[in-house]
Design brief:
The protein is α/β, with parallel strands linked by helices. It is built from ten helices and ten strands. The strands form two sheets. The protein has an eight-stranded mixed sheet with strand order 1-2-4-3-5-6-9-10, with helices on both faces. Strands 7-8 form a two-stranded antiparallel ribbon.
């Protein structure tokens, strides 16, 4: 995959792109997880044939620009970021591949824009993170306090990349080769070494979340064919009972469970590719 950049309404967006094997190849836009970047899809990309694959650095991640002061990194705002990217690519219709946060964003785009999204492949998430109504005020207060305190925090500087790789390994339970891919695309050189290129505002608590009832309505509104690939054991934020309930809400969807970690698409890309199968090429054309 080759690096590229786009000028969008969200600013400069970077990513990795593999050219289409044929003019009518399915167009697949890949959205990475929280604090990851486009390199998240490098291992899997070598096992996906017959598609044009574009993996982007979402705003504030990797090589993409940070949003301006006062802008919002919410999932709702990310819908327009994805549409801006598709518009810049001149893709009127496309398919979505998302991991974790990227799968949550992709779920929202698919529900909100059925006329543009042909298919959805979600890894380790479906819908959005929900909140109980009784925590509404607490969540808002925590988010405001953290936001106001952010300017006083100092960025961690790593004297060499090996230390940054080790930090990612410890934070996410990643093997070294996988962490290396994410770190190499996710740091910027500064005085004294390296620091994360991601916008520090991405670490702030979300001010408002949907209720589970709202998320259920969202998932039920995803009309396109959908496949959800999940790791076993399940992550605490998406336990087995909840995973089953949400998948059952899909009008045209199924789920596949694979033994592995949260980053299974990087750690075991062949197994994930086998679970994907011909899902993206089933329709055979990028243009309806």
């Amino acid at each position: 995959m080759q690096p590229f950049s786009l000028d969008t309404a969200q600013g400069v967006v970077g990513g990795l792109r593999r050219a289409a094997p044929t003019p009518d190849a399915p167009r697949v836009l890949a959205l990475h997880g929280w604090l990851d970047n486009a390199a998240s899809f490098l291992p899997l990309s070598t096992h996906l044939d017959g598609i044009e694959l574009v993996a982007v650095d979402l705003p504030g991640h990797g090589a993409s620009a940070h949003l301006p002061p006062g802008a919002d990194y919410s999932f709702a705002a990310a819908i327009h970021a994805v549409l801006d990217i598709a518009d810049a690519l001149a893709w009127p219709r496309f398919m979505l591949l998302g991991h974790s946060m990227g799968a949550g964003i992709a779920s929202m785009v698919a529900a909100a824009c059925p006329h543009r999204v042909q298919r959805l492949l979600a890894i380790e998430a479906l819908g959005a993170l929900a909140e109980v109504p009784g925590r509404t005020v607490t969540r808002m207060r925590d988010a405001v306090a953290a936001t106001r305190a952010l300017p006083d925090k100092r960025l961690r500087v790593f004297p060499d990349l090996a230390l940054a790789v080790r930090a990612r390994m410890q934070a996410n339970g990643l093997t070294e080769p996988v962490a290396q891919l994410l770190v190499e695309r996710g740091v910027v050189a500064v005085d004294g070494g390296w620091t994360w290129s991601s916008d520090p505002r991405l670490t702030l608590p979300t001010m408002v979340r949907m209720t589970e009832e709202q998320v259920a309505d969202l998932v039920a509104g995803i009309d396109c064919p959908t496949r959800v690939i999940l790791a076993s054991p399940a992550q605490p934020y998406f336990p087995d009972p909840l995973r089953a309930v949400r998948i059952a809400l899909l009008p045209d969807g199924d789920g596949v469970v694979i033994a592995g970690s949260h980053h299974l698409h990087m750690e075991d890309p062949l197994a994930v590719a086998e679970a994907i199968g011909d899902f993206f090429v089933h329709e055979g054309s990028a243009v309806d």
